[in-house]
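Section 3.1: Structural characterization of target chains.
Under the original work plan, the team committed to producing a structural model for every single-chain target entering the pipeline before any wet-lab resources were allocated. The record below documents one such target. The sequence was received from the expression subgroup and is listed exactly as submitted; it comprises 147 residues.
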Amino acid sequence: MKLLYEQILDFKKQYPKTVTWNRLKKHCSVIEQHLNPGEEVLYAFVGQKNEHPLDWFSTCVVALTNKRILLGQKRVIVGYSLNSITPDLFNDMQVYRGIRWGKLTIDTVKEVIILSNLDKRSLPEIETNISEFMMKEKQKYAQVKQD
C-alpha cells in the first residue's frame, strides 16, 4: 500500500488544476498520527476546506480509510484540525461542477463539510470512491441494527 503522501502526489499529478497550498506532507502527517490499528488508507485526495473559490489557504487532505473518512489540516503557526466521519454519521453528498473547478459537500449528522477548488475532472472519481465505500458500510450498520 502506498503512503498517504504518495497517494496525494499521484492525485495532484492526475488532476493538476486542483488548487492546493504547500505543506501537503504536514497535512498528511495529521491524518497518519490518527490512524487506528488495522486502519489503512484506501483513497486520498486534497482540496480546500471552505466554500469560497478565492480562498486558497485552507488546504486539507482527505483520506478514505477502511473504517471512516478523515480530513486533516495542519495550521501554519501551532496546532491542527482533524475531522472524522464514520459511516453511521454520514448523511449525504453533493457534487457541484463549475466552469473551472468543482465542489463537494458532505452532509453529516452534526455538520456540513465543503471541499472546494477541486479539478472538475476529479469529481467523478472522488464521488465514486466515497459513495461505494459508504453504501457498503451503511449496509453493515443496517444489518447490525436489525440483529
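The chain is about 30% helix and 35% strand.
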